[in-house]
Specification:
Number of strands: 14
CATH superfamily of the largest domain: ATPase, nucleotide binding domain
CATH topology of the largest domain: Nucleotidyltransferase, domain 5
Number of domains: 2
Distance between the termini: 20 Å
Radius of gyration: 20 Å
Strand content: 15-25%
Number of helices: 10
Order of helices and strands: EEEHEEEHEHEEEEEHHHHEHHEH
Largest sheet: 5 strands, mixed
């Protein structure tokens, strides 16, 4: 079965063409573009990439069985409409599924990226064999996809799993439009904002910024702080320890509420597990119900850096009827 996947992100988007046969997914092409211009212009460029890429690899897009779109929320999955995600300014009421269906004349499923990746990890990655599983994006933002009782749980309005919006304390870096939120502390953007707060204090004391590649505020990213922490820089290491503590706090809520068998984390956790896990586990031991904590595995996403591609293709599989709806 030939499937088309579109992964829509705040800084970049990708289109993939894949063959699915049983448990196996084989990627035939992947093209990536910057998320610049109007939503319609971005989709037109993705469509052109799909058509040019298919021609180059000898694939026939007329044989595509279904298409999937993976995108951060909020969105209306039932209508196939993207609803003003915070990382996609200007993407207001975008009829994404309709745009793809009109171009390729196939069934299309728009899915929250955390939901799509949760299904992919559940079927082919860290959640395989479980019936109660959660996936956390932990990328530019923070969202969760939930598999409960062996089925994807999307909620009444496609809004289930928005863990990033939970407030962990009254003050703190802003994420998802809320200060002190889970996303504010535990996302790539949130870690960078926390680091800039530390950097401002260092500058005021006349000290250099040890986790900025060029010494500027603008160059501070979650990656630059992680690299400094891994090299033993104490300020950077403490920024990640603090993020790990907040991660433990948020995960404790999820574990006590849903009692999952496994939780997989993507993005920053995949790349910096060693910097986050010790302080995360310290908080989990203090906050969680012992029986629920003993039942859960907390691991990096097994599908690695290609999880976004797998998520988009898994959304296409959903459109093709491969999952119980």
């Amino acid at each position: 079965m030939l499937l088309l996947g579109f992964d829509i992100g705040g800084t970049k988007c990708a289109v993939t063409l894949a063959e699915a046969e049983g448990e196996e997914i084989r990627f035939l092409l992947r093209r990536e573009i910057a998320t610049k211009g109007t939503p319609q212009a971005v989709f037109e460029r993705l469509f052109a990439c799909a058509e040019e890429g298919a021609a180059a690899c000898g694939a026939d897009l007329r044989a595509v069985a279904a298409a999937g779109i993976s995108c951060g929320g909020p969105l209306d999955a039932a209508r196939g409409v993207i609803l003003s995600p915070p990382n996609l300014p200007g993407w207001d009421e975008v009829p994404a599924a309709e745009l793809v269906a009109e171009r390729f004349d196939v069934p299309v499923r728009l899915m929250n990226d955390a939901d799509a990746c949760a299904l992919a990890e559940w079927q082919r990655g860290a959640g395989r064999g479980t019936r109660n599983f959660a996936f956390l994006t932990f990328g530019t933002g923070l969202g969760a996809g939930l598999i409960l009782g062996g089925r994807l749980y999307e909620g009444a309005s496609s809004g289930a799993g928005e863990l990033g919006h939970i407030r962990l304390c009254e003050e703190g870096p802003a994420g998802y439009g809320k200060r002190g939120s889970f996303e504010g502390f535990c996302s790539g953007g949130g870690i960078a904002r926390s680091a800039r707060g530390v950097a401002e204090e260092l500058v005021q004391r006349g000290e250099r910024i040890p986790f900025s590649p060029d010494g500027s505020m603008e160059a501070i990213t979650a990656k630059s702080v992680a690299e400094a922490a891994a090299a033993g820089e104490p300020y950077a290491a403490e920024i990640y320890r603090a993020a790990g503590r907040r991660l433990g706090q948020g995960l404790a809520i999820l574990i006590d509420l849903l009692n999952p068998e496994a939780i997989a984390l993507g993005g920053v956790f995949m790349r910096s597990e060693g910097l986050l896990r010790p302080s995360m586990e310290e908080v989990l031991r203090r906050e969680c119900l012992p029986r629920s904590l003993a039942a859960v595995r907390i691991v990096p996403a097994a599908l690695g850096e290609r999880i976004g591609d797998y998520g988009a293709v898994t959304a296409a599989l959903f459109a093709a009827g491969a999952f119980e709806k």
